């Protein structure tokens, strides 16, 4: 797999050696597009960003529901997510997120006291030793088998094709990790990060997550989250930063076609067409959308890649209670359908006095997609009542469901070969998106890294052309 530094490829100038790369059109206003647009603008390009929605942020944004603000999905980041944290700094909103001073996760269980995973202030890998020894959802035998598996995981090379071809679940079983350990630890962390359970996930992507997050640096897995609606970060603040950088933002504009000559045909909400002429294009659209607008042979190849990658859904169940029922900012669930639950009261914006707004986040949520909203609300109201004593007496004031059927690609074994790099065979055209070959699963960090990689391709394209001229 390829990280940011190896994306930079070689381009040639246009016929006649005319300098190129001074005007850039970025397609898509999600995190990948935002990162690419800002990097290109900071490099001195004239940038236009095109987004079909009326807002920026993509799958990490917000929308209004009555008087409330609702995030399109529950997102967290880790201290090791340096690219995403750098974007927050660039947007001027680092103070609008909360980052733990050390990893601390409450694990809720029905009919049992909550367990806790809290790291010590020791160097890796000793920082988790005491937490795992005290983690009573695992038997002593399972706890004592963890160090051997962790040591073997540290030795893996995620760039190895053979590692990517193997499932994480198979590897765990071969390294002494039984069903209880997989359920209570590896899937507890891996499912929301990979958007797949261990048996369905590439060992390479899982190794990236656990090596970087838990085994590389003591503070790497400290969890961060937005203290405000995601739209305040990735839309409001992003628009301000783009404007300050001189980027022209065109919202409510759909990309219809991208020519091999970098002519981009778009249409506004009035369906009136326009053609944007660009020296370089960064396509930061979802894989299936990119495949439909990019020229041959690239478009058809991306269509095959998108089909092979597939999609994994995320479903969020939103519950507003008449009183506080969750005493911590977030918690994981074990031996329950509740995977993770978050207190998003501060971001709601219209809560009755004393109420609490919780979001249950369900990753790898294929089984929940066909279930009706009313049934899901009742199902998870009851599940939380099993986990939280306060919820048994509390009254549910509101409940609704948000679904993202194509939240991420499926991180299955063999995925690496299906993810395209930023550089394409068409001069001046680069790809971005969490689905491209970032070396990370489809996360906010991966999306930002992809945008930065595409911007590097664009700048390299310009530099080579200017030398040719």
Automatic annotation (TrEMBL):
Domain of life, source organism: Bacteria
Q: Which UniProt keywords apply?
A: Oxidoreductase
- Per UniProt, residues of the Amine oxidase domain are 31-458
Mind listing the GO molecular function terms for this protein?
Answer: oxidoreductase activity
Q: Where does FAD bind?
A: 255
Instruction: Tell me if Oxidoreductase is a UniProt keyword of this record.
Output: yes
Q: Name one Pfam family in it.
A: Amino_oxidase
| Cofactor(s) for this UniProt protein | FAD
Q: Extract the NCBIfam families matched here.
A: HpnE (TIGR03467)
- The identity of this protein, by name, is Squalene-associated FAD-dependent desaturase
State the organism of origin. Answer: Actinomycetospora cinnamomea
